[in-house]
Design a protein that fits this description.
There is one protein chain. It is built from 7 helices and 4 strands; from the N terminus they run H-H-E-H-H-E-H-E-E-H-H. Helix content is 47%, strand content 13%. The longest helix has 17 residues. With 176 residues, the chain is of the alpha+beta class. The protein has a single domain, classed as Glutaredoxin (3-Layer(aba) Sandwich), CATH 3.40.30.10.
C-alpha cells in the first residue's frame, strides 16, 4: 500500500516537473560557440541582444532572413542572440552575463534590439549606435538603415547591389 501511495504521489508531481524550465546558456557559452564558428567559416558575428516580448527584435530577425538579403547575411555573418530584459516569469530565458556585455558594448539604456558586430576573437567592430548616440534598434528609418549599411560596409565587402537590397528591405520596416 505504501508503494502505491508513493507511486500515486509521484504521478501527481510529474506534470509539475515537466513544466520546469531549463536555464539558458551563459552569454560566455553562447559567444564561445559563435567565435568558434566565425573563426572556422571566416565570418563576422552579428550579435543581437533581444527579448521574447520585443516586436522590433522579431522584425530584425525577419529582415535578416528575408529572401532579398538572406544570402548576404548567411555568407558574411554568424548571427547569434543573447536574451536580456525578460519579465519576471521568463527570467529563465536570459543568458547570464548578457546584460554586462550589452553595457560594455554601448547598449545600456538603449532599448531592444541592440546589435553589435564582432570579429572571431570577440573584438567590437561596430554597433547599433548612430553618431548621434541613438540606437538604430531594428533599422527602419532612413538614417537608421544608412547607419546599419555603413557598419556592413566597414566590416564586409558588401556590393553596391547588395547594399541597395538591404536598404530597400530594412526601410520596409518603417511601414510594417
Amino acid at each position: 500500500m505504501k508503494k502505491l501511495l508513493v507511486f500515486i504521489f509521484a504521478l501527481a508531481l510529474f506534470p509539475l516537473a515537466s513544466f520546469a524550465q531549463d536555464k539558458a546558456l551563459t552569454a560566455e557559452s553562447v559567444l564561445k560557440l559563435a567565435y568558434e564558428q566565425a573563426g572556422k567559416d571566416n565570418k563576422k558575428i552579428l550579435l543581437m541582444f533581444h527579448a521574447s516580448w520585443c516586436g522590433w527584435c522579431k522584425k530584425m530577425d525577419k529582415s535578416l532572413q528575408d529572401e532579398t538579403c538572406k544570402q548576404f547575411f548567411d555568407d558574411n555573418f554568424v548571427i547569434t542572440h543573447l536574451t536580456v530584459q525578460e519579465g519576471a516569469n521568463k527570467k529563465y530565458l536570459e543568458n547570464e552575463g548578457a546584460d554586462a556585455l550589452m553595457e560594455k558594448w554601448g547598449g545600456k539604456g538603449q532599448g531592444l534590439p541592440f546589435w553589435v558586430v564582432l570579429d572571431a576573437k570577440g573584438e567590437l567592430l561596430g554597433n547599433a549606435l548612430m553618431p548621434n548616440g541613438e540606437n538604430t534598434g531594428c533599422p527602419a528609418q532612413k538614417e537608421e538603415v544608412a547607419h546599419f549599411v555603413s557598419v556592413l560596409k566597414k566590416v564586409t565587402k558588401v556590393s553596391k547591389k547588395e547594399a541597395e537590397k538591404i536598404t530597400q528591405r530594412f526601410e520596409k520596416n518603417a511601414s510594417r
